[in-house]
Backbone:
């Protein structure tokens, strides 16, 4: 049908569902009328840059190549820089320089260039100090989506200067995988750092049905607790209400309750320290 | 404008608002770039196949003919079949064979054919055991939306073999309509099985303002309770806070509180047994 | 690409996320297949016409000129009129005549004409008494979006006859701004009536960091309380957890907690009386 495909703009914020994201949508469509805006999430936990980074990096590999804008930005209006970064896959990611964009960029082949958004002709006139989603990020993303050159964004940045998050990591110990909760999804499943490779390195091959012990909390801390659970290939192999560990659809280890909410049952949230060993 | 209309894909899940639905959206748009994805709901109560089936059958008759994908799938990764079913209206419904799709198909004229999704060229490579929305249903729906033939889905299924839900039904007794709660909507209104035809068969003609008695709970059960309410044509005819029964916009009997939440007030949810008789 | 741009339809309701908005979307797309529907919000507090009016007027100035439909309609099915109003900017707003549309119309240059929706050929056959979103407003908006003339809507209305809301207003007193909460956003920020002009008229120039006193509750009422806070240009200038006042992105005075929820902390919601004076 089209001489040119409609440009895709992925869009993630912690703005909630009451209109701020719609204002940005309006700004983008006013500039890039034929853009296909793909909402990733607007219910990211408020101010939770790590949650936003996790969701963005989970989603973007599945979206078409495009310009993607993400705003979880507790430092709006301060001297944190507004940035656009180009990925090896060909995407441009737009948002605040607070660590939100880099994990996704790494999933898209890595950062090939970064620029500070400084083109005054691209910003809305008289930008506010509290809503750069509307005044800076949405218009910049829309300009790029209409085909404006990446070089026009503003001055080039040293990619080593970009802010990075400290995210939970998995480490392999003798007979134990030491990891942490990266994200709690809407089912209450705990998404952990590390995948099957790390689990096998720590515990050897793990067969479906194998018994495991989950440690919640850091060693030495008073609140450390233990739970029995089984390694499962999928939820339906467990009995309803059973605590289980599985390889999630992103290739990470995850903990769930079959037909239930693991985060609520375990009282564990993002950032919690987790250990896994054999029962 | 278009030589061909953009294909419509209706989309319903219990994935919540934090990115899993967006991943499926990305997969669909990567295959069917000009698809018009119409989100029906992604906040279906987790694992509640009946709620999903109710919402799908409520919505689809109002959407343009298209390919529609629905995923409420506690049995993902087990041997429940992934299916596509064709309706008399011309739609194709895609999802798990667990009863989710059939009530909607019946509203669209009935099932004319069903196939198991088994075309490996259509699936994402190396499908996961926990996210068939992304790996099976979204790509199959998108292929069909681009015009791929229904026959290419996979082997034909006997439609009598498809899984069916047990849904609440209305039965007419002497002076009493025995029914049940099919769904609690976001206003807290109780949507009941049966419509005006059944109510009239049980109680005779019911005029606006007529007094009724609502029985909540099954006969013989200790928790059975009674509430007075009035038959109303619309909410505004009731005083604020009044309990009322009305014919809802789908043609079913429903119970509401004017400017309030009937489910919270009555403590009644999906599946609750309800009786209605004259006061 | 397009001979004609896709028409934009802004869309706001209190229908929630479980399918009623999708039904309206389906109705609109069945009539105006190439419409670009821009969801503004569907989680407006139930029956809260004032909240809906606030969000609509906040969002519409940022959307492209179009037909916009809004439904927060506790009086559905009663004699409140269904209306379409034309704005000076060129938009048409569609919804119930209960005050929901007028504040947005004023932001779009004012009302230039109003008509009652009465064209039976535009309504769905046999309209329900409880779902005019589906049966009246969505089809009328879609017809207008396809280019139908405003005159075809129905009989002209005297714009002075349109229902108006009583919204909180700001008044300048000696050394005090008397105002009220217009809206609590999803961050818990209190959006107040009145802007910098009114604040300066009451208190003189207010520098970033200046100490203020916030009065919550009406004078004479037992529940009146006082809180210290500072005037800030943006959230990041405050310490985490600090109560602050700022000029919000719509040009109004607002009260926030840095990285927190002001409404929860202050126990203050829409309609609360607020006074601001110097510390």
Residues:
């Amino acid at each position: 049908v089209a001489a040119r495909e409609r440009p895709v703009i992925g869009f993630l914020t912690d703005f909630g569902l009451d209109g701020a994201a719609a204002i940005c949508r309006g700004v983008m469509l006013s500039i890039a009328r034929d853009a296909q805006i793909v909402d990733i999430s607007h219910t990211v936990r408020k101010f939770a840059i790590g949650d936003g980074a996790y969701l963005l990096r989970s989603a973007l590999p599945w979206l078409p190549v495009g310009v993607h804008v993400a705003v979880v930005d507790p430092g709006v209006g301060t001297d944190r820089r507004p940035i656009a970064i180009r990925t090896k896959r060909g995407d441009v990611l737009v948002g605040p320089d607070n660590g939100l964009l880099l994990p996704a960029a790494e999933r898209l082949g890595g950062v090939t260039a970064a620029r500070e958004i400084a083109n005054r002709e691209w910003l809305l006139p008289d930008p506010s100090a509290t809503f750069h989603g509307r005044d800076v990020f949405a218009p910049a993303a829309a300009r790029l989506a209409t085909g404006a050159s990446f070089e026009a964004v503003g001055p080039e940045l040293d990619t080593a200067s970009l802010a990075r998050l400290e995210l939970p990591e998995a480490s392999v110990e003798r007979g134990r995988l030491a990891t942490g909760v990266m994200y709690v999804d809407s089912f209450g499943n705990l998404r952990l750092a590390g995948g099957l490779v790390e689990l096998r390195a720590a515990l050897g091959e793990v067969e479906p049905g194998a018994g495991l012990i989950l440690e919640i909390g850091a060693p030495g801390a008073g609140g450390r607790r233990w739970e029995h659970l089984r390694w499962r290939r999928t939820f339906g192999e467990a009995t309803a209400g059973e605590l289980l560990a599985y390889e999630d659809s992103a290739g990470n280890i995850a903990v769930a309750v079959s037909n239930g909410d693991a985060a609520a049952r375990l009282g564990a949230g993002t950032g919690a320290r987790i250990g896994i060993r054999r029962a």
